[in-house]
Amino acid sequence: MGTRADRVIAAVRDADADAVAFGHGHMLRVLAARWLGLVPGDGGLFALAAGTLSTLGYEHGTAVILSWGEFPS
After folding, report:
1. pLDDT band at 40 (very low <50, low <70, confident <90, very high)
2. Whole-number Å distance between alpha carbons of 63 and 71
3. For the chain, what is the domain count?
């Protein structure tokens, strides 16, 4: 899963544009971990409820989680 997440991240960064990803919780947690430069297993540190929205982005050039597990209004 880490390799798959890395491919998604590379594609988004190469596109230099906003992107939307849909997936199951386990993959999205791995994606978040890899976005932050953590090992795939660290994705288990992020709780994520079904049907929530999260935003990955940058702050001062550093990859960050801008929002996590928010319920749409």
Report:
1. very high
2. 22
3. 1
In the chain, what is the straight-line distance between the N-terminal and C-terminal CA atoms, in Å?
A: 30
CA torsion through residues 52, 26, 21, 40, sign = positive
Q: Compute the distance between CA of residue 52 and CA of residue 2 in angstroms, rounded to an integer.
A: 22
Q: Pull the structure tokens for residue 72.
A: 């749409």
- The string of pLDDT tens digits covering residues 5-23 is 999 999 999 998 999 999 9
**66 DSSP assignment:** E
> Which residue type is seen at 53?
L
Where would I find the beta strands (DSSP E) of the chain? 53-59, 62-70
Q: What is the pLDDT of residue 16?
A: 84
Question: Domain residues for 42?
Answer: 2-70
